Amino acid sequence: MWRLGLGAVATAALPSLKGSLRADSETTIRQPAGPIAWPIALDSNANAYGPSARTMAALQESLTRANRVPDDECENLRDRVAAFHRVARERVVLGCGSSEILRIAVRAFTGSGRGLVTALPTYELIGRCAAREGVPVAAVHLASDWSHDLQGMLAQCGPSTGLVYICNPNNPSGSLTRRADLEAFLRRLPSSVTVLIDEAYHHYVEPSSDYRSFIDDPVEDPRVIVVRTFSKIYGLAGLRVGYAIASPRMAGILTAQALDRNVNVLAAKGAIAALDDVDHVQRSSSLNADDRQEFLNQANARMLRSIDSQTNFVMMGSEHPVGTIVEKPAVEAIVEHFARNNIVLPAAFAPLNQYVRVSLGTAAEMSEFWRVWDLMPGHKM
């Protein structure tokens, strides 16, 4: 049964940041900074600040190689990822975005009677890939604290399970599953089951004893595959480049399913530059922490509950005020309202049908988001 507990929900008024909540309880949105690119896309969890200047320069330079196949660039990127994470290069698998790696993992480790176990809700792509392949999917509802219900997922794992998918922090909830709990889960998992841990939002997690990356702090378990992407904090979502770190055997299985030359010249060159630009990653993480706090301040000022997020998006309750006449589901009505005002939000993520996921944008974009929010009947502060 779905347990709709509040868990880690922001309920109290949060500290003022950059003029968000004044002492008189009136709310001031941060002043818009720079022009807005329309429509405002708050649906895909991209880095609103884009790639670094160093990465942009590398992309410009790489245009001179656009007429060549990317053999050298792919090998250079693979070597650079291996060096960055201090692993052997045969453990690195490149992908056309992390999406390709999820797709080939489904093909490699499920099928022929083997199924997939995931959370609900979680990043939907791997489930869609499994469905297209005719693979049975067991989706286990999140626990009441919004973490993965690992006990429930374990109960779904057996001889017919090929792959378990864990997105941590989870998309769309933005919540963490504790490292100690994941380690205990791995110890109890049948030895025949492969585990794919998606760390797409790793760089946004605030330091905590509950979280450690399975790349930075690996476990001695050859079944574990860890996936990262350049689409989030590195700001390269449009170039489609990701990678996995796995045991040599697992990496070989994945590579055998992947396309040859699956990372283009621009993506490879840009990813190498982005990986080297540690300062940009740190700046983006710091800006995001401030932006996330600001968003929660604004939500709390409107008495809207939110799931505690460790990412660059927030899952916010969409409850209509008492007495408001609602002709359609809350999230559907909200998404349509924002679309009419040139702001793109994602559809509801079942079963969280009373929550809307909002990707964090620039100060100007979020100012416009709250202006449009307050235009909805019954929602103005």
**Number of E strands:** 13
Widest beta sheet: strand line-up: 3-9-8-7-6-4-5
SSE arrangement, N to C:
EEHHEHEHEHEHEEEHHHEEHEEH
**What would you say the CATH architecture of the largest domain is?**
3-Layer(aba) Sandwich
Give the number of helices.
Answer: 11
How far is the N terminus from the C terminus?
Answer: 35 Å
Report strand %. Answer: 5-15%
Identify the CATH class of the largest domain. Answer: Alpha Beta
Find the CATH superfamily of the largest domain.
Answer: Type I PLP-dependent aspartate aminotransferase-like (Major domain)
Major β-sheet, in short? 7 strands, mixed
Classify the fold: give the CATH topology of the largest domain. Aspartate Aminotransferase, domain 2
What does the radius of gyration come to? 21 Å
